[in-house]
Amino acid sequence: MTDGRLPGRVALITGAASGMGATHARAFLAEGACVLLGDIDDDKGSKLAEELGDNAAYVHLDVTASADWTAAVQAAVDRFGKLNVLVNNAGILDGGPLGTYTEQQWRRILDINLTGAFLGLSAARDALVAARPSSVINVSSAAGIQGVAGMHGYTASKFGLRGLTKSAALELAEHGVRVNSVHPGGVMTPMIAGMAAEHGVAEIDRAQNTLTRLAHPEEITSLMVYLASEESSFCTGAEFVADGGLTAGSIHA
Ligand code: NAD
């Protein structure tokens, strides 16, 4: 009988009702953590938490709302006694050429993908420090390492998340909180499913990366477990790329 790789860890995962967030939640629980799932999809989120058992709970958490963040951090402490892992995973994807992509789209995606993580770090700071050693994982993207044509808001938000990771890591290191960013390439989740339906999975797979396929969510989750645990105790302010070679360079001479 083992305690798993995350004994004594209490994690708050945003955007946990579906896609990668849900996969991370399952794996964290299997490794011995307690998990508070946050999302705006209350139906899906609460059903999932119920299915996952006593060490899981759901809270309505719109990452753009400071009051939701305050309540979510308090809920983690009330239910599980502390908070020592924060996964800023919630995000949206959109795009469109300059001149067509609207100011409203720009502001919305920056608000959810970037400001949401800032609000989370701000709200959770004291709880994370109190429960040290703690770990924050900001889910950026390969689009936070290199640009993507026509995806201005998404690319800017994911580059911004990479910068926020470093400023927070530098500030929080002395308080026992590590902060890292994760940069997945294409992963088969509901976020990508729409694109796949439009263009065909084979085409997307070929276009994605050197491994010529999309990742399974579990291939990102294994990295998340490592970062959430003290196995990664010497890692902070760092970028963890899992993109099938997408940002390694071109295979063409
Ligand atoms: P997904 O669309 O499957 O899930 C996203 C979840 O976030 C949903 O449950 C949604 O309800 C929730 N959400 C949306 N707005 C929210 C808000 N304001 N507050 C709280 N929750 C909100 O997406 P996914 O593919 O699992 O992506 C998860 C993260 O990984 C995102 O940050 C995404 O940008 C990033 N990412 C995804 C891919 C990919 O190929 N799927 C690649 C790189 C990075």
From TrEMBL:
Protein name according to UniProt: SDR family oxidoreductase
Keywords carried by this UniProt record: Lipid metabolism, NAD, Oxidoreductase, Steroid metabolism
Family of the protein in this entry: Belongs to the short-chain dehydrogenases/reductases (SDR) family.
Cross-referenced InterPro entries: NAD(P)-bd_dom_sf, Sc_DH/Rdtase_CS, SDR_fam
Pfam families: adh_short_C2 (PF13561)
Organism superkingdom: Bacteria
SUPFAM superfamilies: NAD(P)-binding Rossmann-fold domains
